[in-house]
Design a protein that fits this description.
Distance between the termini: 19 Å
Number of strands: 19
Number of domains: 1
Radius of gyration: 21 Å
Order of helices and strands: EEEEEEHEHEHEHEEEEEEHEEEE
Number of helices: 5
Structural class: mainly beta
């Protein structure tokens, strides 16, 4: 479902963000700022469940040697907004959305390379997402970008209480699962279809909804060949703050790990980690994020969800950010928690000559319309 390269939705979104946050008092003399591209606007989309980030950039001069050896920080939570998540049923929801400390999920060997969703998420959905809380577990000095302090990964202006509405799609496809591979290879019957997110549609839709400074205009994604990679082309580039043209940009999104939990017919959770790389003139900017979502079906065409975007530092060598990454042990340095309401879009059909019924339908990336 879900920044131009910094999830996409969700997605997630799209790419790495702004200026490195000022060091905590006492750290400044020991660690220098990282080499970072200063970004004017930070935005992410959740694509399916992953996050992508998109941001225009201008050059900075924050380079310098770093001095390792600073001890690991203690938790010093800094909140913007106070919020307790709705009832969470799944283990993923309880352990990752409620966590005060979080290490990135790891991909288990021999597992699927795509997130598969429950059947109740099939169709086109009107999604309303409200930012309820921003949470910095080690304090704001460990956050890699002012954009994440002023706003969120989805938009630099998004504040606690802000609500954004967009349309997202989930469609049915013959899944490239181990089970289906064995079914085809051994001739054991017909392979089963699964529900997946239309990551290309969702990335463009969310980019527009969040009014991103450089919107996603085109997404190259082929789930049958490689569902773990997306290429995003951005629209016209504005000028940087120093009035230099930013030049053409594209984003590469690599979905590196995923977990899913089907608790019941009406409760499902997933987590997905991604690395997004924005490629601009003479610059390559990387960011690591994770999107964790628990979905609960509350009616035939209604779903509520709780979503957390976790932001991680990247282990850049010989940089301030790399040192901070070591200090926190690679754990998340910022959380953005959302309440989500989803209403399925129904289309009218006339049957038996005059009887009108409502059905859930969705257009697939191959322009085929599927209906329940």
């Amino acid at each position: 479902m879900v920044s131009a390269t910094t999830t996409l939705l969700q997605v997630a979104g799209l790419f790495l963000l702004g200026v490195v946050a000022q060091a905590r008092p006492g750290l400044t003399a020991m660690v220098q700022p990282s080499r970072r591209t200063l970004l004017k606007d930070a935005s992410t989309l959740a694509v399916g469940s992953s996050l992508l980030w998109s941001t225009p950039a201008q050059a900075d001069n924050l380079n310098g040697p770093v001095i390792p050896g600073v001890s690991a920080p203690r938790l010093q939570p800094d909140y913007d907004g106070q919020w307790s998540p709705l009832t969470l049923d799944t283990n993923i929801g309880k352990t990752r959305i409620r966590a005060n400390e979080l290490s990135p999920i790891q991909q288990l060997p021999f597992t699927d390379q795509e997130l598969y969703y429950p059947s109740f998420l099939f169709g086109s959905w009107k999604v309303k997402s409200t930012l309820k809380q921003k949470f910095y577990p080690y304090g704001k000095s460990y956050v890699p970008s002012n954009s994440l302090l002023e706003g969120s990964p989805r938009n630099r202006q998004e504040q606690v209480g802000s609500t954004t509405t967009c349309e997202v799609h989930y469609f049915s496809t013959l899944a490239n699962t181990k089970e289906n591979q064995l079914t085809v290879q051994l001739g054991l019957g017909v392979p089963k279809s699964k529900i997946i997110a239309d990551r290309a549609f969702n990335a463009i839709s969310i980019s527009k909804a969040y009014n991103q400074l450089t919107p996603v205009q085109e997404v190259q994604w082929d789930p049958s060949k490689d569902p773990t990679r997306l290429t995003l082309q951005f629209g016209a580039q504005p000028l940087a703050d120093d009035m230099r043209p930013l030049g053409p940009r594209r984003g590469e999104v690599y979905i590196t790990a995923r977990q899913a939990e089907f608790l019941s017919d009406k409760s499902y959770a997933c987590a997905e980690r991604s690395r997004s790389v924005t490629l601009a003139s003479r610059n390559a900017i990387a960011s690591d994020t994770e999107s964790i979502t628990e979905f609960q079906q509350v009616g035939p065409n209604s779903v509520k969800a709780t979503n957390r975007i976790a932001v991680y530092l990247t282990p850049n060598p010989n940089s301030r950010e790399g040192i901070l990454w070591q200090q926190v042990g690679g754990k998340a340095v910022a959380f953005f928690d959302y309440e989500v309401e989803m209403e399925r879009i129904l289309e009218p059909f006339v049957v038996n000559g005059n009887q009108e019924i409502q059905r859930a339908c969705v257009q697939t990336p191959k322009d085929v319309v599927q209906c329940e």
